[in-house]
């Protein structure tokens, strides 16, 4: 590749990585820009993917980059780290073989030394993909175990219903102020006010008002206390 090489950068952060050291979009962009300059490549664009997981390739900026590759606008793709492109080994190989190689596009990580034009480089890249997926699977297992332990201990798992809060022991307990609002919502509904009008009066989103009314109409015996369904909510 020469000084006329059209390089692009692809950078990504998921929600959990927003504040992680070295993972910010600006840091990734700066490292990619510096690397392209050191190689004498023309960095024509950086695709910025914010708030998207590496578990799937269904991402808007990745889709736009793929379209540009297929249109012949790109010579090499730069990433800060391989897992910024994808965390799944299968997806990595599909991108490498079916997209990059098929269109004569190179692929380079700024901080990981490999060369996809050699057998050894492909093997090394494969090892990186294996460990990236192992890390993802390990995190998933730990998360699953943690949630199971909390559930077994009676702690509440999942979205907290309106009108309740998580107590110091991790169990669900009533939130007095919100319970008063729930009572008012039910009172206003008995007066046949619309969901929109109730929402305006109690200053609670219409979707929340609708959920409270729907739950109340389905059953007057919804039970949410202490991480299980024990106490009637009326």
| Strand order in the sheet with the most strands | 2-1-3-4
Mean pLDDT figure: 80
- What is the helix fraction of residues, given as a range? 40-55%
Gyration radius, in Å: 26 Å
**Reported CATH architecture of the largest domain:** 3-Layer(aba) Sandwich
Task: Name the shape in a single word.
Answer: elongated
Low-confidence stretches: 219-234
Distance between the termini: 71 Å
Verbal overview:
The chain folds into two domains: 6-119, Resolvase, N-terminal catalytic domain (Rossmann fold); 164-233. It is built from eight helices and eight strands. It has helices spanning 25-39, 60-70, 82-85, 89-100, 119-152, 176-190, 195-202, 206-218; strands at residues 6-13, 42-50, 76-79, 106-109, 164-166, 172-174, 222-223, 232-233. The strands form three sheets. It has a four-stranded parallel beta sheet, sandwiched between helices. Strands 5-6 form a two-stranded antiparallel ribbon. A two-stranded antiparallel sheet has the order 7-8. Helix 6 runs antiparallel to helix 7 and helix 6 (176-190) packs across helix 8. It is elongated. Mean pLDDT is 80; it is low at 219-234.
